[in-house]
Amino acid sequence: MTALYEKLHHLVAQMRPITLEEMKSVRLMKRTDTKFVTNVEKLLALLELTHESYSAQHNNGKCIAGYRTVYWDTPVTHEMFRQHHCKHFPRTKVRARTYLDSGHSFLEVKKKDNHGKTRKKRIEIPSIEAVIADGYGEEFLTERTGYTFRDIIPTIENAFHRITLVNDAKTERLTIDFGINFLNHETGETGTMDNLVIIELKRDGRIHSPILALLRQLRIKPSGFSKYCIGSAITNDGLKINRFKKRLHRYEKITGRPRN
Fold first, then answer.
1. What is the C-alpha separation between 163 and 205, in angstroms, rounded?
2. Dihedral Cα 112, 118, 121, 122, nearest 10 deg
3. I want to staple 199 with a disulfide (CB 3.0 to 4.6 A). Which of 18, 36, 98, 238 is the partner?
4. For residue 258, pLDDT beyond 60
5. What is the C-alpha to C-alpha distance for residues 114 and 121, in angstroms, rounded to an integer?
């Protein structure tokens, strides 16, 4: 994978840069979000097709960002995992995320309502460890979810790389995640999906999307992907994962290898 990652970095570095501050001008008033799942080889082909019409976000001189995220859930019952597995609405996820390049960390609560709309609220925190060890941000957690840190525990951790692109017309934004690794805080098990790529297209639903035709051309199909649920499923044999089995098999076919 090292050679592919080097080629990937080279392609992104050749794209026009756009700063984090400039990205704030990309206002998608009637936004629709769609996820696509593919592999690194097809991502390279996609970047070859888009490098002249899209800009890549740069932050602190880097065009590929590193992320670390820890999710919380109820012990034993894994209520938040179960809600997602059973397609229950409304549902909630609690996580802390560190942007590795800047060092900024946030405690976040994501809620998806009965209409499928996701809302995220967050507060800045000193570090992920401050939440795990000291319960930092508990007032925010309780206000948003009704939980305290006595009710939920760290369950799954992930780390990945992200590329962010925006088209010239600034009507759509793509986040591209790859190199995903998991660590389960309950079982101690690890897992990796280093050849899997998750593309999330955030676009203004009123305007033509230039990337959709390219995705179809490369046979990159829409597919839901929850890093929390998939990471949990491959690192905790005690979870009920019936609804995820077909999806996991599909991911194996996309990447061309069994998951580790």
1. 22
2. 100
3. 36
4. no
5. 18
Residue-by-residue DSSP string for 227-253: HHHHHHHHH-TTS--GGGHHHHHHHHH
| Token pair of 91 as six digits | 């549902």
Domains and CATH numbers, the chain: 28-255 (3.20.100.30)
User: 72 with 140: CB under 8 angstroms?
Assistant: no
Cα–Cα distance, 201 to 210 (Å, whole number): 11
Whole-angstrom distance, CA of residue 139 vs CA of residue 154: 17
Q: How many CB atoms lie within 10 A of CB 158?
A: 22
Q: Write down the mean pLDDT value for the chain.
A: 91
- pLDDT for the residue 179: 95
Reported as type and span, the H/E element at residue 50 is: helix 40-50
Q: Contact 18/166 with Cβ under 8 angstroms? A: yes
pTM: 0.92
